[in-house]
Amino acid sequence: MAKRSSLSIRIVEGKNLPAKDITGSSDPYCIVKVDNEPIIRTATVWKTLCPFWGEEYQVHLPPTFHAVAFYVMDEDALSRDDVIGKVCLTRDTLAAHPKGFSGWAHLTEVDPDEEVQGEIHLRLEVVPGARACRLRCSVLEARDLAPKDRNGASDPFVRVRYNGRTQETSIVKKSCYPRWNETFEFELEEGGTEALCVEAWDWDLVSRNDFLGKVVFNVHRLGAAQQEEGWFRLQPDQSKSRQEEGNLGSLQLEVRLRDETVLPSGCYQPLVQLLCHEVKLGIQGPRQLIPLIEEMTSTECRQEVATNLLKLFLGQGLAKEFLDLLFQLELGRTSEANTLFRSNSLASKSMESFLKVAGMRYLHGVLGPIIDRIFEEKKYVELDPSKIEVKDVGCSGLHRPQTEAELLEQSAQTLRAHLGALLSALCRSVRACPAVVRATFRQLFQRVRERFPSAQHQDVPFIAVTSFLCLRFFSPAIMAPKLFHLRERHADARTSRTLLLLAKAVQNVGNMDTPASRAKEAWMEPLQPTVHQGVAQLKDFITKLVDIEEKEELDLQRSLSLQATPVKEGPLFIHRTKGKGPLMSSSFKKLYFSLTTEALSFAKTPSSKCVNELNQWLSALRKVSINNTGLLGSYHPGVFRGDKWSCCHQKDKTDLGCDKTRSQVTLQEWNDPLDHDLEAQLIYRHLLGMEAALREKHRELSTSTEAGSVPTGPGEALEDPLAQMLQVLQDLQEAHSRSPASSEPLEPNCLLELQT
């Protein structure tokens, strides 16, 4: 059993930000840090003091994290980006809001003395003496200190203060992992101060020393234990008066912390077997669980529940059967063909999650080259005459600027080329589409054709497929390539407009070029010939896509399983720090890598396969290693060069390491390794929230029909799955109440209390 923590983050918008540019505006973006580790960078919103982002993230993190901070920055092309302000939410603050923190928060000034990080290793003891006891403080080492100098390191020393006396260690040059092994003694006096203050500083030859953090101890509590040794987290100096809140603007956030105690796998087997049995049966009835879950799940959390269920059944090899059951439920309550799969039903949300989990590599193969070309060309593209800006393009020759008509025609040609290239790539990709995705679309196509068999509905099965493939998968990826890991950064304003217009064209093709879709935006008419041709291409593609036999599906899956399937692949960024201060700029050296079940390879240029972000494969490695009993407790983040380690300057090559091994904070990626127990726990947690409604439903059904018997063996049919589900929930509640982890504190209590 283990504790798992995650953050659901939505960065909504900002307002009343101060102007940082000479134009009287700013170009704001957000950086999110968990315990000083940067994990998220939003898009830049250009030339505004009231930016809207609307970006959502799911973050894995250790249960022992302390705070999450949101920095609002102003992007500058020629100089270092300006820090506008920050919002900091501690773990205690988030824990006090079980349903999540939601609302506006004032930005506060970023004080360098508060931007501290790292830990210090100390040993404190009370030594008896002839006349009086003495307080002995041994400053051993520190790790992960904030780099304050331009060389990406610091020159740290430690200042120890007690009862009006101050002593200092030696200075360790160019290190964020210093070792001192120095001891200081102070005489304990009756009525003396209770606090021992240990401060870390960065020494500077010319300017003033930079504060690196401090720890304050209660000496009286130490007296009873006589000695205490350990690593202590450095804390900021909050004694300064800060700038008044409100004049730096505000940030609207939605942040929810979820702590889960995950039980051993065996505890979840009854729940998993019950759900899987229902999916295998594929029948509908008043006591079926999946329809009840959909009925009682609110719109706000339906996507989350759909993703959890989908991942659970994907891990059990039943994703196609689960989705087929949802297709039947949706078709059974749909009378109008034009409304099919257009709502936010459990079927729509689950299929959307399925494509992101199973089809991301396929998406990269089809869309990647087109998206890369758009980013590289950076052409001005606009079809809406009310938004055309001749000045953004400049002169087409030496004598005259382009006219509005010429710009519109040039834009139409560019978009036709991109749309044509995309449709051609799609038509060539039938065999590249994963077998399980093809089989699922085949099942969807057949179910819809059986439900709407008339000639007037001959396009409905095609539209059902494109409603997911085009409208809910390809189009969102075109509009936001970074969120689908197609690009490393968000697009600029010009490129974003091109992507948006291309996504609209793909949607028109996906809608089969209906009169209703054409009437929405008449200025898209220049693309009509390509859209019309694209409809025929898309229908031919779907016909071939769903033409997969059961034997072919098994053969494809078998052949794929025999290959050295890449676990993670993409660009590896080697971080090289520059600048000074907690928000220093960084440059990266890019290498491309491929991690398979057999080898890890690197290259200077990308291969023909898809490119994903660094945190995806780091997340995979972290999850593989999380239960490794032989995991080292510490390591060297540097290399042994010459006669010493570059990170801590220690001369012993066999030293155990200067930095502790810890689970890093990572973004949740769609192709993260499936964590079956965690998915089952999340489903249990959701069902527990609706337990009262499920019991009421059971009582209601029991009064109208005779209750069935509960099966006594695995081979018997489930006659009353709702009653068995209620029993499973009760058993899991009892298992959690017996779990030691449910009552354990997240961190052990230290004898020495921090004085705030």
From TrEMBL:
Which sequence ranges form a coiled-coil region, renumbered to this chain? none
GO BP term, pick one: intracellular signal transduction
In the UniProt record, does the keyword Cytoplasm occur?
Answer: no
> What residue spans carry the region label Disordered?
698-717, 732-756
**Which molecular function terms from Gene Ontology are attached?**
GTPase activator activity; zinc ion binding
Task: Look up the domain of life of the source.
Answer: Eukaryota
Keyword terms, alphabetized = GTPase activation, Metal-binding, Repeat, Zinc, Zinc-finger
Is Nucleus there in the keyword field? no
**Which parts of the sequence belong to the Ras-GAP domain?**
301-511
Q: What InterPro entries does the record point to? A: C2_dom, C2_domain_sf, PH-like_dom_sf, Ras_GTPase, RasGAP_CS, RasGAP_dom, Rho_GTPase_activation_prot, Znf_Btk_motif
**Residue ranges of every copy of the C2 domain listed in the record:** 1-105, 116-232
Entries under PANTHER family matching the protein: RAS GTPASE-ACTIVATING PROTEIN 4-RELATED, RAS GTPASE-ACTIVATING PROTEINS
| Record-given protein name | RAS p21 protein activator 4
Q: Which organism is it from?
A: Rhinolophus ferrumequinum
Source taxonomy lineage?
Answer: Eukaryota, Metazoa, Chordata, Craniata, Vertebrata
